[in-house]
């Protein structure tokens, strides 16, 4: 009986040592507070001269940076360069000013936005955050600034609202696909103000908008802690 108990103690001790050895890498892997990278995609104008999101899409790209509060929430900064393209020939609406002529434009646009992101599932590799997943859908909302080079320069604010998917490609690499609608406060992004010829009021009434479909790749930076994990979610 004594020999059996002795062997059982050795097995238990061996099992504890194996468990500690397996858990050790997870406890020493650092967590990261932020990520930076680049994005590329398509920019689409929606306004008086284009009612379809899929029409006249133009290539665009920019920089992406994010600060993580925890595995579910982050603050993101996006700067995107692209073009807004459209034509009065693309719509069936009758405009008094363009009944005898066609207006076409291809205007440069720069968007800089700060937004709050919420992940539906805790995001991470599972080694950084207990129970986290490599894949999660997310939503985003924030405030932005738009610069458009039309007939002169236009600088205005915008409200970005979007959704997307995140996937952790590697321990420090993140891939995200997102679609964001930007509701601007100006009706001059296409170079024309109020083609209906009717006065109107309201913060987003008769204003131009644009959407950005973007694929981004970011790299984790700013190690948080190499020996402790105190996030709770």
Could you write a compact summary of the structure shown?
Helices cover 12% and strands 51% of the residues. It has 233 residues and is mainly beta.
Give a verbal description of the structure:
With 233 residues, this protein is mainly beta. The protein is 12% helix and 51% strand. It has one helix and eight strands. It has one helix at residues 2-28; strands at residues 32-46, 58-70, 73-87, 104-119, 135-150, 152-168, 173-184, 209-223. An eight-stranded antiparallel barrel has the order 1-2-3-4-5-6-7-8. Residues 18-28 have low confidence and may be disordered.
Task: Identify the overall geometry.
Answer: elongated
Would you identify the regions where 5 or more consecutive residues have pLDDT less than 50?
18-28
State the order of secondary-structure elements, H for helix, E for strand: HEEEEEEEE
- Summing up helix and strand content along with how strands pair, one would put the structural category as mainly beta
Number of DSSP-assigned strands: 8
Number of helices: 1
- Portion in beta strands: over 45%
Helix content: 10-25%
Main β-sheet, in a few words? Answer: 8 strands, antiparallel, barrel
